[in-house]
Amino acid sequence: MRTFGVASSERVRLDSVLALMRRHQKEIRDRDEDERQKTLATAQAVRRPVYHLVQRGEALELIARQYNVTVEQLQLWNNLLTPRIRIGQNLLVKPRT
């Protein structure tokens, strides 16, 4: 293994460069961790169920079309015997995946 010497006048500059490199590496690690956390949060959000609050003038068919599901799926997920819904009713429109 080879060793090398550094003149004392250059030591301060070398230490400064090493400190700069360490800060840069930490910034990269922090940025990567932030990105990883955002990815995890997005993945969890996608798996959450989605609900729809029925508004005046809405029908089950309209809501089904809005969420790209069938009326039958909405009836099944919400234990509806008929396609009749009420204003203020909270409907499951996308179950947990």
CATH class category label of the largest domain: Alpha Beta
Which radius of gyration do the C-alpha atoms yield? 29 Å
Strand fraction: 5-15%
CATH topology value of the largest domain: Membrane-bound Lytic Murein Transglycosylase D, Chain A
The mean pLDDT is: 92
What does this 3D model show about the protein?
The protein is mainly alpha-helical. The chain has 2 domains: 7-47; 49-94, Roll (Membrane-bound Lytic Murein Transglycosylase D, Chain A). Helix content is 56%, strand content 9%. The chain is built from 3 helices and 2 strands; from the N terminus they run αβααβ. A two-stranded antiparallel sheet has the order 1-2.
Properties at a glance:
single chain, rod-shaped, two-stranded antiparallel sheet, 97 residues, Membrane-bound Lytic Murein Transglycosylase D, Chain A
Summarize the topology.
Layout: H1 8-47, E1 50-53, H2 60-66, H3 71-77, E2 90-94
Antiparallel strand pairs: 1-2
Quick overview:
The chain is mostly helical and 97 residues long. 56% of the residues lie in helices and 9% in strands.
